[in-house]
Design brief:
Length: about 250
């Protein structure tokens, strides 16, 4: 349903021949941007130590491709994609079984609120903490499961590490999952989270190449631009939710 709404009402649909692109790429593009912005504002600090731990294990990688830790990123992307597929399929099945077609609207609003909070935090306005006892306990469990793979400099070890760390509790990921659930389809949710994972790679790649200090300097360089873009991203999701609400009302 969401693809049909975006094809009718997204700004790109106002230009001839771009309606299909708007319906197919609107949500993935939004999450890719969120991943890119959140990567420098959030992921570099949270996941940077995991990246540096891999770089510091054993002899230094000889080839640039090894230093980028592609197996690790592929593992994270695999987990994110599977989570997105599950979220989209679950919400779609629930909406189909209950007739609650407004579920997509609620999921988009939740995702928009999550991204808006990240944007506001970038301006120094924090509305409470996203940390909870549950997420802290889950984070410790995930860290223990991942520990054996930090010293393994191998393709399979890096991939396994990415698979496991892909389920670390993360407020940015929760928002992305809510948006994926709003698609109501497994394939659309998977595509959305794959785009989100791809967006997070540049920041973590910079950490792998030059360390957290370089990523921090890069983040400082667009300290005002990044939060504003994150808020604009949230505005797009609210717009999609508003359009989906109108479409749902007309269809009932």
């Amino acid at each position: 349903m969401l693809e049909e709404v975006l094809a009718r009402c997204a700004p790109a649909a106002w230009l001839p021949g771009l309606a299909d692109a708007a319906g197919t790429l609107g949500v993935p593009a939004t999450l890719a941007l969120a991943g890119l912005l959140g990567g420098f504002a959030h992921c570099a600090g949270m996941c940077g130590p995991f990246v540096l731990a891999q770089i510091g294990a054993g002899p230094a990688p000889a080839r640039p491709a090894e230093r980028m830790l592609w197996p690790y990123h592929l593992g994270r992307a695999t987990t994110y994609t599977l989570l997105g597929a599950v979220a989209g399929a679950t919400s779609g099945a629930f909406a189909g079984a209950t007739g609650l077609r407004a579920l997509a609207v609620g999921c988009l609003v939740i995702g928009g609120v999550g991204f808006a909070l990240h944007g506001l935090a970038g301006f120094g306005l924090r509305l409470g903490s996203t940390e909870s006892r549950w997420s802290a306990a889950w984070g410790r469990i995930v860290a223990r499961l991942a520990a054996p793979f930090f010293g393994a400099r191998s393709t399979r070890g890096g991939f396994a590490l990415g698979l496991i760390l892909g389920v670390l509790p993360c407020g940015l990921l929760w928002g992305a999952l809510a948006v994926a659930a709003g698609t109501g389809k497994a394939e659309a949710g998977a595509l959305a989270l794959a785009a989100f994972a791809l967006g997070t790679v540049p920041a973590l790649g910079l950490v792998a190449w030059a360390g957290c200090a370089a990523a921090s300097r890069f983040r400082d360089a667009f300290a005002f631009v990044s939060p504003a873009l994150m808020l604009a991203n949230a505005a797009f999701l609210f717009y999609f939710a508003w359009a989906a609400a109108g479409h749902t009302t007309m269809s009932l």
